[in-house]
Amino acid sequence: MDKRTHIEKIATKMEEQGWVFFGPILHYNNAWKSQAAVYKRDDSYIVSGLDSSGLKELHEPIDKNEAIKRVEESLEEIKKCIFGV
Q1: Residue 78: left (phi > 0), alpha (psi -120 to 50), or beta?
Q2: Alpha helices in the chain (DSSP H)
Q3: Which of 13, 17, 46, 63 is deepest in the core (most CB within 10 A)?
Q4: How many domains does the chain have?
Q5: pLDDT per residue over 8-45, tens digit each?
Q6: φ, ψ (nearest 5 deg) of residue 80
């Protein structure tokens, strides 16, 4: 199974467990290629994806304020790539 398929299965599993996609993190050292996703459920936030080895699932709690900050930074970076801002 390639890594993309595995990441998609992780996302599906998170949603089945009641987690809602909150946004991307483009620079997360513990994640494969430093890219992960933040999910929210109730008042809890978690970083999810593949770990830095690309072999295991990554599920690490993250503080709400840190999650918001990291997602906003990542979205700004994406916006720069898309719009050349």
Answers
A1: alpha
A2: 3-16, 64-83
A3: 46
A4: 1
A5: 899 999 999 999 999 999 999 999 999 999 999 999 99
A6: -65, -40
